[in-house]
Structure prediction request, 1208 residues.
Amino acid sequence: MAKLSKIFRGLSMVMAILVCAAVTTGVIMEQYPSSLDTYFGTLSSQVVSEETSEADWIYESEFKTAKEAYEGLRDFSIKAAAETFVLLKNEEDALPLAKNANITLLGLRSYAAIYGNNGGSTPDTHGVEDNTIYDSLADEGFNLNPEMLNTYASYCSTLNWAPSSFGNSSPSYEELNVTDDIPELSLSELQDINPNYASLNSSYNDAAIVVVGRPGGESYEYRSGTKGLTGMVSSNYPDSGNILGLSQEEKEIINYAKTNFKKVIVLVNSTCQMEIDDLKNDPDIDAIMWIGYPGAYGFRAVAQVLDGTVTPSGHLGDFYAVNSAVNPAMMNFGDDTEWQNISGLENENVNSYLIEAEGIYTGYRYYETRYADSVMGTGNATRAAAGQYITDSGTVGTSDGTWKYSNEVSYSFGYGLSYTTFEQTLDHVTIYGNKKLADVTVTVENTGSVAGKSVIQLYAQTPYTEYDKKYGVEKAAIQLIDFEKTDTLDPGKTQTITLEVDLSNLASYDYTHAKTYIVDNGDYYFALGTDAHDALNNVLAAQGYTTADGMTENGDPDLTYTWEWGDGDEEDVDSITFSTSSTGVEITNAVSDGRYAMDFNAFVPGTVTYLSRSDWYGTYPETYYGLKADSSDLLYEQLSNDFYTLHTNDDTSEYVWGSTATSYTINDMKQADWDDDRWDDIVDQVTISEFLTFAQNAFHNIQEIPSVGYAGNNADDGPGGSDSHYLNEGSYQGVAYEDAADYADYGTRTPPSSTNLAYSFNKELAYEDGSLILGESTLMLGLPIMIGPGANLHRTAYNGRGSEYYAEDPILSGYIGSAMVQGAQSKGCLVNVKHAAFNDQEINRSGVAAFMNEQKAREMELRNLQQLFEGNGKPASFRADDETYGDTYTMGTLGVMTSYNRIGATASSANYGVMVQIMREEWGFKGYNVTDFTSVSSKAAPKESILFGTTAFCGFGVQVNYWSEDNFKNDANACAAIKTDIKYILYSLANSAAVNGTNNTTQRVRLWSTWRIMYTTFEIVAGCLLGICVVVYAVTEIVPATRKDKKNEKQED
Amino acid sequence: MNTVKKTNAFGWLSYCAAVLALVALIIYWVSSATGYMAGQHINALPIVFSIIAVILLVAAPLLAGRWDKRIIGGFLFVAVVFLAVSVCVFINERVQLFADVYFIPVNHPASEDSALNFAIVGIAFYIASFVVATISGFADKLVKKDKSEKVEANA
Prediction:
């Protein structure tokens, strides 16, 4: 008995430990249900309503079954992808190929193609596996060389396919997802894998299609070897010395194709601008086509373009330089710029900084403006220092030399060929009286022999005046001002389109003198062009310049329109017309001075010299090493993310919390206007604690707000579809798909990348993309919040996350993004436009401090985001069809996600200048504002962020000590801010699908997800075993001992 | 017989568990009050429970032979439960760190790594502590039998 008792005493202890472990597991899991659902692909709760009436439903899905959804997404994704590819070269009509051409696919990426992002909306794995590059081409009718295909397949069979990503798997080979050395098989390696790899080449000799690519996506970062950057130049990249240039092995494969096949077609499977000038200039390369990341079904579209079923109509949304590492922006990029001597700030992600000294001169704005100055002989444009230019032989200059546009450029922004030809005519221009709007009418004629679409690219030039030089206002020599895409035009057919041009996008921001937007006196130009360079040449031609002045070719002045602003006094400017925002707020400096400054000179005067076209040579950026902040500085205080002390004794009696005077629910407020009188009452029903709980629980879910009858919802990451939910969870108007089980693991991450979408230059397509990919994810899968679209500008080619964003130009990116938002919101999707703002590199992305002057901030990234926030850029076809599209573009974005990087020295969500002065006041943003994955931690400056309009913190909860009602309720500023934040939350939810199909019976029910079943089982089993052990222990030790005691007592008696 | 000579191997394990628990407690306290976690709310439960557990683990072999062995067994049982609860709370409070560092693919402060690593060491000490204490729990006694007990047994 004694032996048993000690065993069961020990076992009781073991079981008690197991019970503790089980309970803790359950407690932890229930704290992070949405995280677990995302990670394991489960569903642990669902919002259900007992009975719904038709009136409860505001939005309706297009799909009634999983089959319809699957087919709808697939068909759209193929259609969309086909519009995004850019034909860069097509010598002697090498393309299209015959439909039954015999083809050999070459290059590792011809088998292991890149379908989409790795991380952040990875493409749907099932979709990819059903539509691989080789199956898609074969299904289209091409005959593929099986021996070569098998050789690559044999190699790839040794690799790890579809590694798990967060919430899904990435349809790619894990070993190939690298950015520090590009994997490719040399000929000798092919020989080793399969000695007969070339045996069928002669039978599949119509063309070799060589695929070269670079992976990208969230967390992906490329580095170059230029001064100021983390070096990784390798002799293995002989053209440019950079990772984005072709590697030795890639060139070997291309040379092999040149010597063994009739035609060589190169597909560029990358969203980072690869350095491909050698291919452009190589007469033996017959065609080059940029395909970006075409999406889960996108290679079907590639096949359709290759065989001419679809005529390519994409245009580059980024400038393709000979060497993308040699430009002003790349002088400050990477992680060599770490703060020095920042002690005491170890917890706030104070890592590095980014001094964007290039100002507005990124991408084509740099190359084309310097070109214009070189033609005009101004601004020291042709003189360049070592490391800042490309020589005639294509290498980087090692001593002072001459900057030549022709040495720098491969393809300019907007470039793109077609299988047909078009002629565009600038018919008519009307500048309206208030000079805020212009109508530009253009007629396009298909002058070729096959049907196709044409892109109208409307550019503008503004004068660079003495005023600008005096006050440091920079001007691009050419800038995109609007664009439209035609319908498919048959040969000989024409289409006339009127573009409604927002002239505020011509205004420059003068942060030093006028401190608002200005318009210089002088001559203004509109110009059509096949790309930015062509448009600039047309402007230069109108100004009288020719090839004799150094132009690359003569322009066509007939494709320009000129008008004058002001009286011609170059010393004077119009600082009135665009100094007031659309909300009626006076626009003035927001990030030039004080604690929210983005200009580093505001903290340490005289540190940064910004690039100016008045002296390209003298102001070319240097790399800013070794910056530091003293602990007594304002800079240090901002970097600490702790610069507001909560008050403890304010009179806050005017603020009512948890009011029971009214009993409105969120359902009463469906579609309510911002000015609805009931908002004040319903906001008063919410307590501070409810708000804090809501704000701290925002990881792929929307927390419930019981006081207003909001049951909460699931949410998910985008931007290219739902990251972790699949069609088997789908429903139509609250009724689960009958055929759901047939489409398990088929998702909505099907479309081409965001960069592809922008390259389509098609606003209507972007609207449809938003409607289907984000909007239908919301409706089908019950995800009112989709985190997307991604809309940061491309600052350099080296940001590996560029694939999640659109383009380098604020108008192209802004209008495509705006269309995406409008499409998504038409289905009730509460978009979270990300990442506001300035996520210009993934390196040190959490915490890197982005500094720039306010002109760059406002004219580039913020002008881009402004289009989404204000709902600008309505397509001409929508304006012409008021009956169908009259209620579109009436509301800007309802949600935003702020960025990991700092805006200036401050956490992005706590930068008053951008978050409040610009976003809320100037742009009139009234929606939901969530941080990126910061949690409620010092990385996000939580109390300051709440003051400035942050409504939620994505992450794993609270990591600060002041997160309680008691600490906020006595601070009048905090109370006022929380009231407004609650209204932002309720307003955006009430105007989204969060209230679609809801009524007062709506509740969130717990589902028995796998992880919940597992921990509950663990708890029950451990609990039962503990009970058994304790009982046996008691019986074997306590009871006998008690008997013994009694026996002893009796003996004593 | 003095206390040291009287204690058997299982008794020493109990002392050992007490020392491990004490180290774990110190790590919990320090890691909650310094570095990345500095300034955040410190949960008193693990501190109180750990202190009680340490006292019980020390008291058990000290009082063994003098107090009813059911009470001594109860000391060990309660100590183990308290240590288990302490480590569970400790883990629960560090899940955010773990998730931040291992699940979210972004760079984070080095101090967050340090805090997590320090916490893992503390958790390991807690686990070692209650494992050792549990082994003691399987023992019949924590002290050696003295001669009078043997004589009594023989009789």
Notes: Helices of chain B lie at 3-6, 9-33, 44-63, 69-103, 110-137, 147-154.
